[in-house]
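Re: beginner question about structure tokens

> Can someone show what the tokenized structure looks like for a real chain? I only ever see the sequence side.

Sure, here's an example I had lying around. Input first:
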Amino acid sequence: ASGCWESRTASCSCCSVVVYHRMLVAAVCLGQDGERLHLLCADGSELCLAPARIVHASHEIFDAAAPRETLLHLLQQNITGQGALAPQIDPCRLWETVAAPGVSIGITDLARAAFSDAATSAHEAAVLAALVEDHTYFKLQGRVFLAHTAEQITAQKQKKAREMARQDFIRQASAWLQAVIAGREYVFDDSAACIEILKDYASLGRE
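And the corresponding structure tokens:
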């Protein structure tokens, strides 16, 4: 993939790419500006990033001279298609099928394992997004995935469970506090813990 955008931008054509810019971002590569790539994102914003930030490039070529609206429409079509493939991706099954703990696996190989040898760029992008979002069984490193060990998987599941419990507490505490302020009754088993947090916040300014 490292040379795909170089040849395509040289011929005034472009491809859809996925970049890691604090999160996965789908974009169209419009060309190269010095040592950086000029990218058009799905929300209409533009980025200039180093080629090393590209984690996936499609095999489909777009015409860089096409109207901006056309490129955005094509990009959105790609994103929609990838989203439709997401429910078919089972990270656990993929890990059991192809992973050896601690071994790096390419996105193309993972897509073929999930969708057969007929997997396209859209399948690859869908697998990339699904595994990054799940992050329980694989970790993205550059343009490959590192398979987690069984111990790391357990730790990730425990971390997710703690985060879900924290979010549930925040949701219920918020509903309970709103009910108290409104003078309504609301059953909240952890109200005592919430009161202690409010006391800390009032006395020490801690959240």
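Each token stands for a local structural state, so reading them left to right follows the chain. The CA atoms of residues 15 and 61 lie 5 Å apart.
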